[in-house]
Predict the structure.
Amino acid sequence: MSFVFKVLPFLVLVALLVFLLLTKRLNKKNILIVVVIFVCLWYASDKAGGLISPLFRKGSFETILAGQEFPNSYLGQMSLAENILETESAELCEELSDQYLKKACLAISDLDISQCKIIIEQDTFDWCIKQIASHTQNSGACHEIIDKEAEYYCFFNIAVSKEDPTICQGIEPIEYRPKRPHRDWCFMRIALKTEDKLICECIKEDRAYTDCNLRIDQAIRGSVEYNRLGEIPDICQKK
């Protein structure tokens, strides 16, 4: 919020008090009216750009709580935990009402997977492992995740972040989505990010292979050639 909005309620307060003092109308009734006007302006200023929240210290639980529509729901609590971790305010994990997310929050702040393993609620357990794996860029930890789709995103995000196609090899087919080429998508994302057509050779599904080459060619404005090399490059092999 702009500086004007921040100081406006105080300027009005001072102006009104000075006016009442000069006109000799400074009594309890008028002071009460001034206080009401000040509170209304303060509230309006907060809605217009946020006056109250900056008064809390940076990273305080009140600041993090602000803007949460359903703070006591599971998703609301997870959102709070993510915000706490983003502000590096681990001590605020204790403020979470969900006991499993509280444990996960503390585990993630300590980057300690062993603390995740005492969490018996599966979604929270998986989230805890995934967050630590992401923070430490340790793809090996992704194997600990129970939900296969969550495990996929764990491998995918680390592989793309490190631009390492060998990590994509850790992705296994998801039983309830057997036709979706999750591993190929991982290879494609790295190929597009690095604009390296050699990584497209790792892709098994023909349509995804063609799309990979086409999109890189469009990006670098090169020639369109989709003929496979015949041999799988070493970068496609699992380390």
